[in-house]
Amino acid sequence: MWIFSINENISTGSLISIAIDHINHRECEPKEYDKQFRHYTNLPSELTIREGARVMFLTNKLFKDELCNGSIGVVTKLIDENYIEVAFPINSGINQIVVKKITAYFNLNGAPAQRTQFPLQNAFALTVHKTQGLTLPHTTISLDEQMFANGQAYVAMSRAKSWEDIEIRSFNPDAIKVDNEMLAELDRLQQKFDSMPLLFSS
Q: What is the pTM for the complete model shown?
């Protein structure tokens, strides 16, 4: 019998939760199929949490509570190995939610598979990709060689509401990458716009 959820010392507010995985109704060893499962579920194979830790919610099942995939919160209480209390900032204030473990079901190479884990991941820092669509109260970003995709720097900077809410730790002009096809389209539209007065005057 494998131990999948390890209670390090829940009384002091720390916990390591290891996912319970099944393939073809067989319980797997911890992390045995971690690489394969990553293509089918965003639930982590291992989650290290403690009170005060910043975490990201990973599902869209709590829209009624103004929470979605990507919402950031802070762990306020470890109730037991299956329930955690997390405080999420929302538009109207703070939403205190009890997050419980969930099970994701999928097929792996034709066999039924599943993973049971908290729908959370550690979130002291976020990738630019993961922040798409979010509005954050404050962002600290490095505009450097880690920016590898067109428009990535723009996405990173536009997560905050104003310049006052952005802290840029480092800046390399090469981080500002733009799609050449987009520039060509912008130029085409600009030329079309510039010619419009002539069209109306004739």
A: 0.64
* The one-letter amino acid at 41: T
Within 69-179, where are the H helices? 128-131, 152-157
- In this structure, the dihedral spanned by the alpha carbons of residues 184, 188, 193 and 198, taken in order and rounded to 10 degrees, is 140
What are the φ and ψ backbone dihedral angles of 137, each rounded to 5 degrees?
A: -70, -30
Residue type, 67: L
How far apart CA 13 and CA 79 sit, in angstroms, is 9
pLDDT band at residue 18, thresholds of 50, 70 and 90? Answer: very high
Where residue 4 falls among pLDDT bands split at 50, 70, 90?
very low
Close Cβ partners of 72 (under 8 Å, ≥ 6 residues apart): 54, 55, 56, 57, 88, 89, 123, 126, 134, 136
pLDDT band for 101, please (50, 70, 90 cuts).
very high
- Helix residue ranges per DSSP H, the chain: 34-37, 128-131, 152-157, 180-201
pLDDT value at residue 10? 55
Contact predicate 41/115, CB 8 Å: yes
Amino acid at 2: W
Angstrom CA distances, 38 to 18, 41, 106, 145, stand at 15, 6, 11, 26
The Cβ of residue 105 has, within 10 Å, a number of other Cβ atoms equal to 11
pLDDT at 65: 87
